[in-house]
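Hi all, long-time lurker, first post. I run a small reading group and we've been trying to get comfortable going from sequence to structure in the token notation. Rather than ask abstract questions, I figured I'd post a concrete chain and ask someone more experienced to write out its structure so we can walk through it together at our next meeting. Sequence below, copied exactly:
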Amino acid sequence: MAQANRNLVLYGTEEQPVVGELLTAGPVTVELEAGALRHIKYRGIEVIRGIAFLVRNVNWGTYAPDISDLQIEQADGGFRVTYGAQCTDEKQAFSYQATITGGQDGRLSFDVVGAPDTDFATNRLGFVVLHPLVGVAGEKLTVTHTDGTTEETAFPRHISPSQPVFDIRALSHQVCPGVAAVCTMEGDAYEMEDQRNWTDASYKTYVRPLSKPFPYTVPADESVRQSVTLAFVGSPTASVATVGAAPIEVTLGGPTGRHMPRIGLALTPDIAEESARAADRAGAVGAQLILCQLDMCFGDTGALASYAETAAKTGCEVALELIVPDDTEPAASVSAAAKAVRGAGLAVNAVAVSPAAYLMSYQPDAAWPVLPPLEAYYDAVRQCFPEAQVGGGMLSYFTELNRKRPPADAIDYVTHTTCPIVHDADDRSVMETLEALPFVIASTRAFAGDKRYWVGPSTIGMRQNPYGAAPAENPGNGRVAMASTDPRHCGLFGAAWSLGYAAEMIRGGIDTLTLASPFGTFGLMPDGAASEVCPLYHIVRAIAAAAGRRVRDLQISDRTQVQGFAYDAPAGVEVFLANLWSEPRSVSVDGLPAGATSCILSPASVPSNDGQDPLSDDGQAVQNSIELDAFSVTAIRSS
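-- Answer (accepted) --
Happy to help. Here is the structure in token form:
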């Protein structure tokens, strides 16, 4: 397969993926990628997930730097990197020079000097440092403040809704017994936020406190100087073997007590009529629920009749995402919605209600909109929709849910969604968001208890932007942070990411999961030929077919490379696995009954896809291992 065609199959775009360059400094390895440092490891142990100099616009979108004159020297057990960069749009530009060095002792230094070419409006301009989760979450942390004083604290275990650490000059944590990593940041005061709120797999330390006003303007030609250094203190008190790649081993276990979730499909007014006309196609997915958006701020009730038609043709239950105006009493707004719903002949099984103001994001200690208590909205739903379950939470992201937690005793289920491209849109960062999902689930359970738990619609593309005016545009069909349209949604990448997402949600015992719409930007089926489907279609349909089945334990030696789930099917056990990497992976599966077979959704099967499901083929007998090409998915069945 030609490389351009393979990129289209894998990523939905011909844009080449970014490939980092591995650099070595004594016991330390680091990847240089698009001018940033990633995956800094001491003897194979990840110490820092990333160090980057970022320039953001007034909507929190991140500029892609135009890098020039990149020079890389690797010698004498260390390295030196220099480059120039410019961040521009049609209104403004910022240019800077970067120097990165790594010494024989593992010490790293990243220095930037820059200035805007014009007055430059930004929400943030400067370094961010990312600490990973493995070996870090919940562990001890020493903070040096800007006045030189120190504080002993810890990285949060549950996700902190507010910044866990302020006024930072340096951070130190244990890498291995006897060795600490000390990260020092110069140029301004820094503070830390828990990026797991956005499903980033990191704790982020960033320049310029959020207590200062933003957006702010850097005057033309004003010099900006910042630096980050990373040093290692001490010596290992025991032998530290370099951690290397290991074969992926999967072990099938017994019943867990959990059950496979119901699957929903998201409907919005812009695709309501098409979904109703093509309800047979939508129904073929086998979803149990349609999640219908109703925004009373615009009196947008015209889609209700189409929602009702889709529900009748598919046999799905109906849940409303109900948005009500801020300037009207909850009872009046919800009553108007109920009247419109009844008038359209739409039977509603569940309603998650939110005032419009809560579609936007607010810092935990900021001034929040003055609104009635959430209980007033939930009580109104119970009065006006007496047969419906009442959902509480946020129609935006976990971040907002964590900052405005609903009263658990007033709701029947808690709900939120997520988006993996809020901060970064490269392939690696998107896949890494799966690592944060267990923390999201545990943190939600910590305040919602055993309430039923609904997640979604969760897609790679951004459905809405709580942090700015709107999602970013993506006219070039590339990898763009905070963009509504993401090409990987319809690539094999999207299928693998979504299976990994579902696997963590299944492992966490959620009740209802929505991963896509039937059509449109977030659709399973592109507009046009009825036979054409995205690879994600096969994943969603497979999970939908398993709804309510008993989940089996599935141990995976490295869930950052391979993800999956297993359940008891009528004819035997079924196991689904996805390769989350762009390179082939060999996977061994232990504990399968004799006679198990495997079929694979792969780059080879996608181009010729005529609507047939590669995951429903008869399959081939499972041998000692299964070979999975890039972002491929296998269905293993026994009978």
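A couple of things your group might point at:
The first strand starts at residue 21 and ends at 25.
The chain is about 15% helix and 35% strand.
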